[in-house]
Design a protein that fits this description.
This protein has helices spanning 10-15, 56-62, 141-152; strands at 5-8, 16-20, 33-38, 49-54, 67-72, 77-81, 86-94, 98-101, 106-108, 115-124, 127-130, 161-164, 177-180. The chain is mostly beta strands. The longest helix is centred in the last third of the chain and has 12 residues, at 141-152. The active site is at 9 (nucleophile), 133 (charge relay system), 135 (charge relay system).
Length: 183
């Protein structure tokens, strides 16, 4: 319908056109993002982690530091993207390290490659995907970035949107966003 959609973690997998590392007959994908995602790329729940990510596009659009603290919980990773997909963040993987291992698949780096980067945040048109969980941090820049995507869709594109705002004191300036309300 042309409305912005943001998928985090499992949501990124659902929005991908192709996923690998799934069980036979795995989850059906919604699609839309021209990419291939590896489900649970970083391993199991116990291998969850946090990492500083370089996010120059986010910093240029939303201000703040050039890094963002990504919370990865049994996270996927984007293995490849189409030419229309904008890479917003990646994560460096040291060489000679097992990246993912299961009874069926093992992904390991070659020693000749000093460092590989795996993609963890992408945008394609009105679709945004992050392999990490921005909602688990106090940094709201990804949320602001997405709300601006919603605002960029323009007014009058749907009769199911309503203006949402909070009361503000005279010294505060509030931005109003048209968010979809599904009835």
């Amino acid at each position: 319908m042309g409305k912005p959609v943001w998928g985090t973690c499992a949501g990124l997998i659902f929005l991908a056109n192709k996923a690998v590392g799934q069980k036979d007959g795995g989850q059906e994908l919604v699609g839309g993002l021209n990419c291939t995602v590896h489900r649970n790329y970083f391993g199991s729940q116990i291998q969850s982690f946090e990492a500083e990510l370089l996010v120059p596009e986010l910093a240029s659009q939303e201000g703040g530091p050039e890094t963002f603290r990504g919370v990865f919980i049994r996270a996927p990773a984007v293995l490849e993207v189409g030419p229309e997909v904008e890479v917003l963040a990646d994560y460096p993987i040291p060489s000679n390290k097992v990246l993912y291992s299961s009874s069926a698949v093992e992904i390991q780096e070659e020693s000749a490659v000093p460092e590989k980067k795996v993609i963890v945040a992408i945008k394609q048109g009105n679709l945004l995907g992050t392999a990490f969980h921005p909602e688990l941090t106090a940094d709201t820049r990804w949320h602001s970035y997405f709300l601006k995507m919603v605002g960029d869709v323009g007014e009058g594109t749907s009769n199911t949107t309503v203006a949402v705002s909070e009361a503000a004191s005279s010294s505060d300036r509030q931005t109003k966003y048209d968010l979809p309300i599904f009835r």
